[in-house]
Specification:
Low-confidence stretches of chain B: 547-553, 555-562, 858-867
CATH superfamily of chain A: Nucleic acid-binding proteins
Number of helices of chain A: 2
Shape of chain A: elongated
Helix content of chain B: 40-55%
Radius of gyration of chain B: 34 Å
Structural class of chain B: alpha+beta
Strand content of chain A: 35-45%
CATH topology of chain A: OB fold (Dihydrolipoamide Acetyltransferase, E2P)
Strand order of the largest sheet of chain A: 2-4-5-7-6
CATH class of chain A: Mainly Beta
Structural class of chain A: alpha+beta
Oligomer: heterodimer
Number of helices of chain B: 22
Largest sheet of chain A: 5 strands, mixed, barrel
Number of strands of chain B: 29
Helix content of chain A: 10-25%
Mean pLDDT of chain A: 81
Chain lengths: 144, 867
């Protein structure tokens, strides 16, 4: 075999490795029901859940807890997924700025002891700059 | 009055620019096609050039029109209204130009015409085929801002920046009352973009995007006119220039993110960032294969593939960030303007034409007769280029996940794939190894390139290897690096510095012109060391160890203390221990426009909805008086700076001023860090949450106390003592005349570790009672002297409390981040040297050719310069 062929084979092997790993590492969008099933099956993979905040008729956010005086690193809220399943979410970091006006929230994390433990929060806020359009912001509970 | 002329002129000029681009494409195409007579070709070429100059004039006109609208605050135009405001300083008015999609396309178009002109002037022999590609790209780009609806088909082409507000939002109720309504002020620029980097980063990045078109055009021109090898010489300096500019543009963005955004770093693996680094990696690979492309057929073929790939990746990146396909995935993608279809056509046209042409010409490309030797320079450069491409491919494969979802969707499948939850871990898995290998190859490659080593004589590499191992061992021991991946990356980077440094010392004595490669490689190696330490060894300083965790104490200590507790709460003027520092939040400050530094917010009263404030006292900064009490001064109304005092164990004190921007119309707060820069590490501090500095405090219900002297009472859980009531001659804000009397109470309030004295006063003035309350923000308390009862000798006070002001902040240390910035500068110098060298090569060859062709005709145009 010529060197160039061996070389080509190695490249193809690495490329396949990259694709397989990407597919393996990629997370998925699921709902809370599925997230609970996954937790029950012992699947510890982090997943994405899209939902809306629980609000009353006047638009006040319900069941949101953040008391920086006591603990600035504990933020809890209730998220309702696209199938109308409500779930308590705990985010061990400071409350993201502009959280209150977000229309749509994506939480990334997994179910733990009955609550959804979020590692990262993405928010879609009505943007002043894009009238009527949404703007995404990202927040991470970095573990460094 | 609505200034409709300028908008119509702008719109018309866009249409002219589009049409002239199409005509120029056709004319240059005719000129580039062989077959016609020499006169025909010349006529077409001259005609094409004139049309292209018309195009240039039209584009400059469009740019001028849009800038005129923004600069003159014509808020009847949607673009000006949406992206600028009266209070915006001039520098940032420029950046509102490219804040939106249309303007950024325009910026790109602008750079392309400038580059097109430079090419026409410097390179007449390649003009026709190269400018055909250029003009076609311009046609596509101008179509994006065309804003024309094709009648009958109801198809909109492009989105114009010259729309009036009432054309964009005709349903606004105000237009029912007044059809000629013009907003008084615009929305303003996103506060995050009000930063000097945002004035220079986008133009640099778009110049980088624009320059990738040049090597691509030359590659296409080479294939087209069968100048299979000749295209490399004129293309190479531009490819290097493009590497330089695109690289600098990306790094400026990274630096802006580090300084302005609060995620605590310079790289977030965001799709927008990724999609600009991938073309850069491929372009760097292309430069390497181009250097050896004239000697090696495999490298020549690869050069074609990589230069074409670079430009297509730029188009793909444009498509991803502007078509809305990223959706949830990115923090800063543009919103969908309905251009997805157009962008896709643009992408596919160039992909298909370029690849088609390459396949069509493949058989006339030369092939190597014998295998490349393992001991040749070509072999090592080739491996390096391959690794760069694999690195780019890995980033691209992950970044494209939202695209896979869209593709599956169009086939009716639901994929629901999301980006990896742990992006950093995912990318590091590959990139750490790729870059360890790449950086080793830069060292080995240079030794082979300069023929310092060869088959059977590898001794020259032993010394650098030995030195590198010794230095690495020392660094690993001192810095206590345990992670194997980190050890490998560090060792290889140090080897690259030593090896390239050795080569540099060798060649710089001969000809420093040739040192570009070695210097660039040293820059990259330094950057890798900086990235390794600043990202891999970031230390959170603000670990929350406060005893306030009673509510969840068990959870707090469980899980090996690894739960997140990276933010701490600071109360106004209450010192808190953080790491080795003692931290105190001292004040909120505002930023005046014509006074250096920041001044306390309490010194001024900010005029709501304006960029002015009234001074409440004389404004004296550094012993210089700038304004008197009552003056109106200009400020940045959105910016608040939180003065945080750091006391080091040595007793040295320094202050940091992390910023919080509050934009009432935007309704949110945005925070940016402040960074204390030391040689060895940066201390990075940002505020995550604040009690709104513009909101009036909400006071509790009044509580009344009637007490005697030296009585103790409890307010808001504090012990308070009425020490004394004394006569006073001065009460601030009240002019005391003859016969007036004033007393003040001295109330001592005991906090945990500090005493406060509050002195509310009671004034009888012109037989009227005036009560001057005193507010203490540290305690969140207001006390008013209500009454004196001469009969009982008792005094009454009214007390209100409010929530005490606090901030939640985070501080991290970034070790050796300066090595990253140092590496950046070295990299820039290396690229500049390399670009100059290759440009000189090109000029020399061009003049030789001109001379040769001139001799053929017998009339040399250029006098030979014999050096």
């Amino acid at each position: 075999m010529k060197k160039i062929q061996i070389f080509g084979l190695i490249i193809i092997a690495v490329a396949i490795g990259i694709i397989v790993t990407t597919a393996g590492d990629a997370s998925t969008y699921v709902d809370f029901t599925k997230a609970k099933e996954m937790a029950a099956d012992g699947d510890g993979e982090s997943i994405h859940v899209v939902g809306k905040l629980k609000k009353d008729a006047t638009g006040q956010i319900l069941e949101m807890e953040y008391q920086p005086a006591i603990d600035p690193n504990y933020f809890a809220f209730t998220l309702i997924d696209n199938n109308n399943v409500a779930q308590k979410v705990v985010y061990k970091n400071s409350k993201p700025q502009d959280f209150d006006k977000s229309e749509q929230v994506v939480v990334i994390g997994k179910m733990q002891n009955g609550t959804f433990s979020a590692e990262k929060i993405l928010m879609k806020c009505p943007s002043k700059y894009e009238n009527g359009k949404m703007e995404t912001t990202e927040h991470t509970a970095a573990k460094s | 009055m609505i200034h409709s002329t300028i908008g119509s002129a702008g719109h018309l000029l866009v249409i002219i620019a589009f049409v002239t681009a199409l005509v120029a494409t056709f004319a240059y195409f005719k000129a580039g096609m062989s077959g016609g007579t020499v006169e025909d070709t010349l006529t077409w070429k001259k005609f094409a050039r004139i049309v292209f100059y018309l195009h240039v004039a039209a584009v400059l006109g469009v740019v001028f029109s849009l800038y005129w609208i923004i600069g003159n605050h014509y808020f009847e135009y949607h673009y000006a209204w949406k992206n600028s405001s009266l209070s915006l300083p001039t520098g940032y008015t420029i950046s509102s130009f490219w804040q939106d999609q249309e303007g950024s396309f325009l910026l790109w178009i602008f750079w392309n015409v400038i580059l097109g002109c430079v090419l026409i002037f410097t390179n007449r022999s390649w003009e026709a085929p190269v400018m055909t590609v250029f003009a076609l790209v311009q046609a596509f780009l101008t179509s994006m801002i065309l804003g024309v609806v094709i009648p009958g088909l109801d198809v909109k082409i492009g989105s114009t920046p010259f729309l009036l507000l009432k054309e964009v939002m005709p349903d606004l109720p105000v237009y029912k009352m007044d059809a000629n309504f013009i907003p008084k002020d615009g929305n303003g620029l996103n506060p995050l973009l009000q930063n000097y980097w945002m004035v220079i980063h986008p133009p640099t990045l778009f110049l980088g995007f624009a320059t990738t078109l040049i090597p691509f055009s030359f590659a296409i021109a080479g294939l087209w006119s069968k100048k299979i090898q000749e295209w490399i010489r004129p293309a190479l300096p531009w490819a290097l220039f493009s590497c330089l500019i695109l690289g600098v543009g990306i790094l400026m963005g990274a630096y802006w993110a580090y300084e302005t955004l609060n995620f605590g770093g310079y790289w977030n693996w965001d799709p927008v960032e990724n999609s600009s680094i991938v073309p850069w990696l491929v372009l760097v690979a292309a430069v390497h294969t181009m250097i050896i492309g004239r000697r090696n057929a495999t490298a020549l073929k690869t050069s074609f593939i990589l230069t074409i790939a670079t430009f297509i990746l730029i188009l793909y990146s444009t498509f991803m960030t502007r078509s809305g396909v990223l959706g949830n995935a990115s923090v800063h993608s543009f919103t969908d303007l309905g251009l997805s279809g157009q962008l896709l056509i643009y992408l596919l046209t160039f992909t298909i034409v370029a690849i088609g042409l390459l396949i069509y010409r493949w058989k006339i490309l030369p092939t190597d007769e014998e295998e490349v030797s393992t001991y040749s320079q070509e072999f090592w450069i080739f491996i390096g280029a391959t690794l760069l491409c694999l690195s780019g491919f890995q980033i691209l494969a992950t970044t494209s996940i939202p695209v896979y979802n869209k593709i599956a969707e169009s086939f009716g499948a639901v994929l629901n794939m999301a980006l990896p939850a742990d992006q950093i871990g995912h990318y590091n898995k590959f990139q750490l190894w790729f870059f360890s290998l790449i950086i080793v190859l830069t060292g080995i490659g240079q030794f082979f390139w300069w023929k310092r080593v060869g088959k059977g004589k590898l001794q020259a590499l032993y010394n650098p290897l030995l030195i590198a191992l010794i230095i690495s061992a020392a660094v690993i021991t001192i810095q206590e690096i345990k992670d194997i991946q980190h050890i490998v990356l560090l060792t290889t980077a140090i080897f690259a510095i030593v090896a390239n440094g050795t080569i540099l010392l060798n060649i710089i004595r001969g000809n420093y012109n040739l040192s570009g490669g070695a210097i660039t490689h040293i820059g990259v190696a330094l950057m890798l060391v900086g990235i390794l330490f600043s990202s891999g060894y970031t230390k959170v300083v603000s670990i929350n160890n406060s005893g306030l965790m009673i509510s969840r104490s068990e959870e707090f200590t469980s899980n090996d203390n690894k739960e997140n507790k990276e933010n701490i709460t600071l109360w106004l003027n209450k010192p808190e221990k953080m790491g080795e520092y003692m931290l105190t939040w001292r004040d909120v400050r505002v930023e005046p426009r014509n006074i250096p530094g920041y001044i306390p917010k309490s010194w001024v009263d900010i005029v709501e909805g304006d960029f002015h404030a009234v001074a409440l006292r004389d404004i004296v900064v550094n012993d210089k008086k700038y304004n008197s009490k009552g003056d109106t001064i200009e400020i940045f109304p959105e910016n608040f700076y939180y003065e945080i005092e750091y006391r080091e164990p040595s007793g040295r004190i320094f202050n940091l001023f992390p910023r919080v921007q509050i934009n009432p119309r935007m309704g949110g707060i945005v925070s940016s860090p402040d960074i204390q820069r030391k040689v060895g590490k940066d201390l990075y501090t940002h505020v995550n949450m604040v009690t709104n500095p513009t909101a009036e405090p909400v006071w509790s219900q009044t509580e009344n106390f009637t007490i005697s002297l030296r009585d103790t009472f409890f307010v808001n859980d504090y012990v308070a003592i009425l020490d004394n009531v004394v006569r006073t001659e001065q009460v601030e804000g009240v002019a005391l005349g003859e016969g007036d009397a004033a007393v003040k109470a001295i109330i001592r309030i005991l906090d945990k570790d500090k005493e406060y004295v509050l002195t509310p006063s009671f004034v009888i003035r012109d037989r009227m009672v005036a009560r001057k309350p005193e507010v203490n923000n540290d305690l969140g308390m207001r006390i008013q002297f209500q009454e004196i009862n001469p009969q009982t000798g008792q005094f009454s006070f009214a007390v209100n409390t409010t929530q005490r002001d606090f901030i939640v902040m985070k501080a991290i240390e970034k070790p050796l981040i300066n090595v990253l910035w140092l590496g950046t500068f070295v990299l820039i110098i290396g690229f500049i040297l390399a670009t100059i060298r290759r440009f000189k090569d090109f000029i020399k060859m061009r003049d030789k050719e001109t001379l040769a062709s001139g001799k053929d005709k017998g009339t040399p145009k250029v006098k030979p310069q014999i050096a």
